[in-house]
Structures are given as C-alpha cells and as structure tokens.
Amino acid sequence: MIDSIDRLQAEARACQLCPLAETRTQVVVGEGRVPSDLMIIGEGPGAREDELGRPFVGRSGKLLDRLIEEELGRTRDQVYITNVVKCRPPNNRDPRPEEMQACAPWLERQIVLVKPLVILLLGRTAVSRVLGSSGVGAGRSLTSLRGHRYDRSGAVIIPTYHPAYVLRGGAARLTEMRVDFARARLTLSGGSVEV
Ligand code: URA
Fold first, then answer.
1. In angstroms, what is the span from residue 102 Cα to ligand 1's centroid?
2. Predicted confidence (pLDDT) at residue 125 exceeds the cutoff of 80
3. Residue 49, C-beta contacts closer than 8 angstroms, at least 6 positions apart
4. Domain count of the chain?
C-alpha cells in the first residue's frame, strides 16, 4: 500500500505498466499541496511537461495558472495538479483506453492521498475517465455535463473545458471556464453551486 505522496512519486517515476514508458522522457506524476482541498486533473503531459517532468507548464499551463489566481485566488502550489496519464502520448495524440486503464491506480491513489473536497476535471478525457467510470458520465458529452456538480467518494466534481480547447476557442469558452472555476471557489467556501 502506497501511503505517502513521496513514495507514490518515486514508484510512479519507474512505471513500466504501458508502452508510453518507451517513448516518454520523464514521468509527470503531479505536483502541489498534499493534502489539498482542491485537485485539478488534466489529460496527459505535452512536450514541455515531458521535458520538465512537471504538469501544465506549457501554454495551457499559463492559462491554468491565470485562472487559479484570478478565479480561485490561489497560486498553483496551493492546489494539487495532475493528469489522467502520467506519460506523454507520442505527438500529443489522445491517450488510449488501455493506457488510461494502466495508469488509473496512480490517479486513484493520488485522490486518496490528496483528499480533495473539490476536483476540477479539465477536458473530456479527464471527465470521461473520472465521471464515466463512476457511471454518471458514461456516454455523455462534456457540454452536457459541465455546469453541474457531481459527488464522488466525498469530493465534489466540477467538469470544465481543457485550457487547450479554450485557447483555440475564444472568449465565450473562456468565460464558461471562469464560471466553473468560480463555482469551485464557492464550493470550497461552503456555498451552494447548483445551476
Ligand atoms: N495538457 C494536459 O492535459 N496536461 C498537461 O500537463 C499539459 C497539457
């Protein structure tokens, strides 16, 4: 049983559970505060993350940092940030179901160790992985799931867009993403967020 984030970090860095181990430069396990009331889960590392071994440090990460500061009133070291898969899929392709399945025990254990009250899911991969597997999100689009909150093992789950999608999509998507982050802040402060 992995009982600390340091141990998880060390073991995950040596992971060989799927073929992404052959093409990665570094395992991007996650970073931030543990335990933390807020956890943010993306899809998987991109080129910059693979190079530096840290989640969300490229263009998407810059937008994420801004939203964490402007809508949550925090810095990234006050939350815990990770991805569904910890190794970069070649050419930034979507992670394959068997890769997400192989990586799932790491994410599950991270959730147990971080003990978040709120989990923000960025994009459809994170949403289908975390909500789909609990049955709520199975077969449903991100558009139909966002705007609501879901409960899973003691945490409130808030689905939102992936920052890369927002960077491609303009002002309206950014506004919606801001609303989702503000909803997370309200939940953390004990407010009601059902819309
Ligand atoms: N996109 C993700 O989903 N995760 C990262 O860490 C970086 C970009």
1. 18
2. yes
3. 28, 55, 56, 57, 58, 61, 88
4. 1
